[in-house]
Prior knowledge:
It is a single chain. The protein is globular, with a radius of gyration of 15 Å. Strands 1-2-5-3-4 form a five-stranded mixed sheet, covered by helices on one side. The protein has one domain: CATH 3.30.1330.40. Helix 2 runs parallel beside helix 3. By secondary structure, the protein is α+β, with helices and mostly antiparallel strands. The chain has three helices and five strands.
Amino acid sequence: MFEARLEALGVRLPGPFPPHDPLDAVVIHGGSARTSGCLPRDEAGHFPVGLLGRDLTIADGVASAERCAWNAVSLLRAALGSLDRIERVLTLSVFIACVDGFAEQPQVADGASHALVRLFGDAGRHSRSAIGVAALPRKAPVEVEVTVALRREG
């Protein structure tokens, strides 16, 4: 279902790029799975750097948020063995490194939200926080965390 949808979309997932030790890429507990923060890495592990509103445009931010979402999906697939174990996306947290006064965090975060809805359909609809911050790890412009509900086995 979701694996077939990913193929139909023609999306090639990057990574997965797990976090450094002692962190887990995905924590599975009590019927849900939550990713660690994902940066907008491409297939080679590279990503843009800088602040939205100074170094990068809103369009750059939207593209970075989408890339973050695909990185989170890649981590989930690696941890779960298949995206078909996912029942639905619950929550998306999007952190946007931006200049003081930047107020387009929701527009930037839409890049990640739209990617998840394209892949999971109605099951990809989620609650979300879009948070402006002064800096992110490795000077990344966007970082995303995703929490999903898992299908009950049996």
